[in-house]
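From the shared-data thread, chain only:
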Amino acid sequence: MDLGQLGAGIVMGIAALGSAIGIAIAGQAAIGAWKRCYMNNKPAPFILTVFAGAPLTQTIYGFLLMQTMKTAAADPSKAGYLLGFGLFSGIAMAASAVAQGKAGAAGSDALGETGKGFAQYIMVVGLCETVALFAMVFSMIACQSL
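Structure, as tokens:
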């Protein structure tokens, strides 16, 4: 078994799992906010889909890092390093997606209730995103310098 290739698959899988969890969290809150709007005869803001879909990007980051790791996995001496890298980079991206889902859920609740504050709420969602971006970029740099 090639542990380097396994690490490349792990980073993709764990990042995607985090995206799914984050989307579920934010999506449930968006649906709840829309329901409250409908019950109060207020327009339901479509912009809440931004909060619900934001954690999806971690899957893309996992895919991009997987591609870089597959190239680095051509050298079997790097296998253990890449396995560890895949595991921990994937966990970092997944944690970012879950945190982003929670921030998006709070943003959906607040925006649905008040109709105000989208810029502030999306900034917090973006801060959560930054963790995944850093994990991906720093991991790609490290893989290329092996």
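The chain has a mean pLDDT of 95.
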